[in-house]
Amino acid sequence: MNFNKEQANRIEYIETVIKNYLPKEEGFQKTIFEAMNYSVLGGGKRIRPMLMLETYRLFGGADQSYIEPFIAAIEMIHSYSLVHDDLPAMDNDEYRRGRKTTHIVYGEAMGILAGDGLLNYAFETACKAFKVNSAERDSTVLYERIRKAAKAMEILGQKAGVYGMIGGQVVDIEGIHHEDSPLEKLNCVYKLKTSALIEASMMIGAILAGANDAEAAIVEDMAANIGLAFQIQDDILDVTSTVEVLGKPVHSDERNEKITYVTLLGIEKAKEQVEELTQKALAGFDSLNRKNEYLKELINRLITRIK
Amino acid sequence: MNFNKEQANRIEYIETVIKNYLPKEEGFQKTIFEAMNYSVLGGGKRIRPMLMLETYRLFGGADQSYIEPFIAAIEMIHSYSLVHDDLPAMDNDEYRRGRKTTHIVYGEAMGILAGDGLLNYAFETACKAFKVNSAERDSTVLYERIRKAAKAMEILGQKAGVYGMIGGQVVDIEGIHHEDSPLEKLNCVYKLKTSALIEASMMIGAILAGANDAEAAIVEDMAANIGLAFQIQDDILDVTSTVEVLGKPVHSDERNEKITYVTLLGIEKAKEQVEELTQKALAGFDSLNRKNEYLKELINRLITRIK
Questions:
Q1: From CA A43, how far away is CA A96, in angstroms rounded?
Q2: The domain that contains B164 carries what CATH number?
Q3: Closest C-alpha among A151, A154, A38, A47 to residue A96
Q4: Is A29 helix (H, G, I), strand (E, B) or coil?
Q5: CB neighbourhood size of B242 (10 A)
Q6: Domain range for residue A68?
Q7: Cα–Cα distances in angstroms (integers) from residue A86 to residues A111, A306, B110, B124, B210, in the given order
Q8: In chain A, whose CA is at the least distance from the CA of B169?
Q9: DSSP of B196-248, one letter per residue?
C-alpha cells in the first residue's frame, strides 16, 4: 500500500463531500454562508472524516451516500468549535493555519453566528441520512436504516456537547491547578476535548455500517485511547520538537505555565503512556478481526507523528 | 373555558418537562450546567412549547412522552439564541426579564459556551424521541414512529438554522437601510427571526401527532402569519403603548432610527396588516376542521396582546 497516495485520494474525496454539503453563498444572509464556508474550507487535516469513513469501510460499509452527511457534519462541528475557540473572549487568536480567523475577517458578531450556524447546520446535514431510498418498501429494511441513522445522530450530539467536546472546553477554560487533582482533570479535558469527537467519528462509521453494540463499544474504547495518545504526543512535541519541524512555537506550555502530561509525569513517563495507549488501541483493532490496513497505518501515524 | 386557569396548568406542566430535561449541576463541567439552567429557567412565557403541545393535541396527539423531548428542545434553542443575542459583540444587554444576563453572571466565555451547549443539547434532547417502546415488535409501527421523529428533527434544524432563525439574526445585525428594498428585508427578518421557531413548534406538534403533508403545510403557513403579526404588533406597541403597560421603554425604534412596519407603512397600515394576518391565520385554523378552543384563544391573545 502506498499510504501517501491512498491518503491523497481520500482527502480529495472528503473535500468534495464537505463542499457539496456547504451552503450556497446567496440570499439576504449571504455573509454568514461566506463566513461558514471560509471557516470549514480552511485546510484542515480532515482527521475525523477520514477516521469515520475508514471505520465505516472496516465494518463493510459500502454505500458511501449513507455516511456522507455525517462526514460533512463532523467536520462542521470541529470547525465551529475552532471558530468559537478563537473568539476574543476565548483564546483570542487572530490566525489559524496561516489565515486570519473567522471573526477577524467577518467581525465578532458574525464569528459567533457563523459558529452557531455551523453547529446547527451539522445537525441539519446529518438529518439527510434519514432520507431512505423511496423505492424500498420492506419496512424492516426501512426501519433498520433509519434506526442506525438515529443512533448515529444521538452519538454525534452526545460527543459534541456538554458531556463531550464542549464540556472539555469548559474544564480547560476554567483551568487546571496543582492543588486540584490535576491528572484527573487533565484526563477529563483530553478525553472530552479531543477524544470525544474521534469517538463520535469512529462509532458513527461503525454503527452506520452495521456494527453491533459490543463492536461499537470496542471502537469507542479504541478511539478514546487514540485521542488521549494524540493529545499526550502534543504535550511531548511541545518540549522535544523545534519550531521548524512543528510549524508553531515550541515550549509554549512552559511559558504559559500550563499543566500537561509532561509537567505532571515527566517526559519519559509521558512517552510510556503514549506507547501503552497505542498498544491498547491496536489491540482493540485486532480484536475486531477485521481488515483495513490503511486505517491501521493512519492510526499509527496520528499517534507517532513528529509534528 | 377559563383561559387563565387552563394556561396556568399548561405552564406548570411545561416548566416540569423543561426542568426534567435540563442537565444535573454536577461534575467537572458543573459551571456550564449552572449557566445553561440559569438561562433556560429565567421565566420565559413558554410560547413555543405551548404552541407545540396544543398543535399536537389539535391533531389528536395523546402520548405526551413522545413530544416532551421536542418541547424541551425548542425552548433550549430559544434560550440559547437569547444568550448569544445578549453578548457584548451582539446586543450587549446586561439585563433580561429583570435578571442579569448569562454572560454578566458567568463571564463572556461561559456565555458563549452555555449558548453552544444549549443548542447542542437541544438536538441531544430531541434524539430522545427516537427511543421507541422496546415492547413494540411490529416494524411498520416502529418505522412510522421513528420516521415522524426524524421529520420533526429535520424541521427543528431547518427552522433554527441559517435558513431560519440564525439567518434572520444575520440580516437584522447587518441592518436594514432605506435604499435597500427595506420592506422585503424587514419581512425576511421577521419571517426568519420570529416566525421560523413558531413554524417549527407548530409543525413538529402536527407531524408527531400524525398530520399529513398537506396539513403540515397549512400549519406552517398559519404559524408564519402568527409570527409576522406578532412582530408587527411589537412595532405598533413601541409607538402606542406606555412604559407602565409594556414594562420596557417605548419609542425605542424611533430613538434607534430603526426601520419597522410602522416607520415604513404608518401606524394605520401596520394595524391593517396585523388584522389581515390574523384573519389568514384563523382561516387556516378553520380549514383544518379540528377543534382546540384553547389554542385558538392562545393565538388570538398572542397577536392582539397589548404588552
A1: 10
A2: 1.10.600.10
A3: A38
A4: coil
A5: 10
A6: 3-303
A7: 9, 25, 14, 25, 44
A8: A113
A9: HHHHHHHHHHHHHTT--HHHHHHHHHHHHHHHHHHHHHHHHHHHHS-HHHHSS
Smallest Cβ distance to A90: which of B31, B112, B150? B112
Q: How far off is chain A from B87, nearest CA to CA, in Å? A: 9
pLDDT tens for chain B, residues 1 to 307: 899 999 999 999 999 999 999 999 999 999 999 999 999 998 889 999 999 999 999 999 999 999 999 999 999 999 999 999 999 999 999 999 889 999 999 999 999 999 999 999 999 999 999 987 667 777 788 888 999 999 999 999 999 999 999 999 999 999 998 888 899 999 999 999 999 999 999 999 999 999 999 999 999 999 999 999 999 999 999 999 888 887 777 888 888 888 999 999 999 999 999 999 999 999 999 999 999 999 999 999 998 876 7
Q: What is the grid cell recorded at B95?
A: 439585563
Which one of A32, A112, A171 has the shortest CB-CB distance to B162? Answer: A32
CA B28 to chain CA mean position, Å:
32
How many Å lie between the alpha carbon of A222 and the closest alpha carbon of chain B?
23
SS3 A96: strand
- Residues A59-72, buried b or exposed e (16+ Cβ, 10 A)? bebeeeebbbbbbb
Copy the grid coordinates of residue B36: 445553561
**Reported ipTM:** 0.96
Q: How many domains does chain B have?
A: 1
Of residues A142, A116, A123, the one with CA closest to residue A39? A116
